[in-house]
Structure formats: structure tokens, C-alpha cells
Fold this protein.
Amino acid sequence: MLTDTEIRRAKPKEKAYKLSDEKGLYLEIMPNGARYWRMKYRFEGKEKRAAFGVYPEVTLKEARDKRDEARKLLAQGIDPTEHKRAIKAAKAALTEHSFEVIAREWHQKVSSAWTPGHSENVLSRLEQNIFPAIGDKPISTITAPDLLKTLRETESRAPETARRLRQTCGQIFRYAIATGRAERDLSGDLRGALTPAGAKRHHASITKPAEIGDLLRNIDGYHGSVVVRAALRLAPLVFVRPGELRQAEWSEINFEAAEWRIPGPKMKMRSVHVVPLSQQALTVLQNLQPLTGHGRYVFPSDRSPKGDRCLSENAVLAALRRMGYEKGEMTGHGFRSMASTLLNEQGWHRDAVERQLAHAERNAVRAAYNYAEHLPERRKMMQAWADYLDRLKQGADVIELDARRKA
């Protein structure tokens, strides 16, 4: 029997040679010094060799264990070499037929006909929402409940994204069917399982990047009141409720800290709300300050020369209508839905998004103290959001899904 000492002392020679152990196991030492574990055996009357790896990566004990496993297979009438090949092939097939592998293959095939922005959006949604849950599963083993569970997790954050993903997954399943790696498109089983589009939307909103870019350019070109145009420019950068926006007061704006602190009595939840101000938001306010900074309100009514009355409730809405946006397309409240949809889709921390939207806190005691919760993350998010809107306004169609990590 071999020993580790004997193996370590063995030197390479001009020709390969063997150091025998027992029961067919031996170590073959090559002229270049490489050492390979082999096992000689007979199967169906033919002499064969099994390979167990390289020493010292595979130790003497491990090589003996592999030999014993091979001998058990031989006792059952199974060729250990063919058995090893079959296992390797099965593992390779599972990898080649995984949902992620097929999805990426499908994406590569079809994305050449898309714009770069749309191509990136589709793949990023899959990477963010689908691959972590079912990407490594063989596509033929995925069930409708598997897919539904994954989509519902996305739906809780971004309903529209979940609906788009169901359609995308259906295309991937159909591609797998066409290439012989799946038998049916199970996404069809989920019809009606997700919330229908618009079922929970109370305020019309624009969420398609290209249309957002159009809206922002239309706002810049608005020819009405300077104050209303400033309100329209600030609205998408802060996405507060319309009443909170029009009632903004200069005393609440802290340029040095780059934040707007809205007092609790003005808020729907009756607690202080901090709005981090991006450089773009600060610019809007700084440009407006010489015009309205002498009064109380940031956006005073044009019927109030002293600035002691804020914009009317319908000022922003009327401006949107003058720009051609109908009731079912966009509202003042729609800037919130726009931000909520896309920020969730871009992968920002859900709690940070919810806190910035000042949504209801279930725990009333906690609600009184959480106005600054997630503030560092929210500051990064608000600046990244403003930068993203700038890119859309300039005509970009790419959604920076990695914005949170780059910020």
C-alpha cells in the first residue's frame, strides 16, 4: 500500500511510471511531475481505466474513497467511468436548460431589433426580479406557482413591472418550447392572477421613460405663469402631494442643508416630512427666490401681490391641461406615481421610497419619530432621480437600474 511519504518522495522520470496502491488504484507520475490517480478495472470483459483527479488536490484517502465507490458500482453492474460521464452530462444539461441561461439566450436573439434602452430595461428587470428566485432552475421544472410567487413579490413593489415581467417570461417560455427545452408556456396560467393594470391607480400618471422626457421638455417650454412653471419643474423632483407643493413656504427651505422640512400639520400623516433637495431642485428654488422670496409662499397666487396666498388648487392641473395632457393621462398627483413606479423598478430600497413618499406608517408612535428615517439613502436617491430625469429630458431612453449602487 502507498503512503503519503512515498508519494512525496517519488521523482519524475523520463517516462511515465506507476506507484501501485491496492484494488486497482495507482498513481501515475508523468515526466513533467504531474501525478494522476487512476484505477484499473474490467467491465464486460474489457480492461478500462477510471480517473480520480490529480495529487495533491485529491489526497490518498480521497482517491481510495473514490476507488471504493467505483467498486460498489461495478458490483451493481455499472461502469464507473460511464456513470461519471452521465452525471456530468446531466449537470451540464441542467445548467444549459436553466431559466437564466435560456432567458439570456432569448434576449441576445431578439434584442438586436430593440433600442439599447429597451434592451437594457428588459434584461435588468429579469436580473433584479426573476433570476435571483428561479434563474438557476431547469426551465422544465418551474411551475406556475413558482412564477406567480416571484411575480407577486415584484408586484408588491412595482405592479406595472410585474405585469411586464409576466409577458417577458411568456416570451422566454415560448422560446424554450421552440428550442426543445420546455413543453408549455405556463405564464398563460397566470392570467388574472396579478392585479389588472389601473385597478389600484387613483391618479393618472406617466411612467414610460420616453413620455416622461416629453413631459419635462413641455414643462420647460410652458408659456404661462413663471410661478406655475417653477412649480411644474419642482414637482417631479420632490414628488410631494399637490397641496404640500403649492403650500411650500420659504421658511421651510434650508438651502445650506439642501432640504425642505414640511411641518406636521401640513402633512396628511400629521408628522414632519423631510424632502432632500437635489442640485436641480435647489436651482429651481434659487431662480424663483428673487421673484417670490419677499413673501411667505414659494408659489404664491398671482392674485396675491404680497405673496400671502399660495397657488390655487387647480393651478398645476390647469397648466397640464393647457399643455395638452388630458384627465386620464397626467395629474399633479401623478408625479408621485411616476417616482414610485420607477424608483422601485430601479432597485432603490423600498422603505426609502415609501418614506420619501410619506406614506402612512402603521405604527402611530413610530410615525411621530421616523421623519428622518433612511435619510442618507433618500438623499442619494433624490439626486440620482433628478439626474435620471435630466437624462430623459435630454432624450435618453436608458433607465439606470444600477443608479442606487453608483450613487
The longest helix spans residues 159-178.
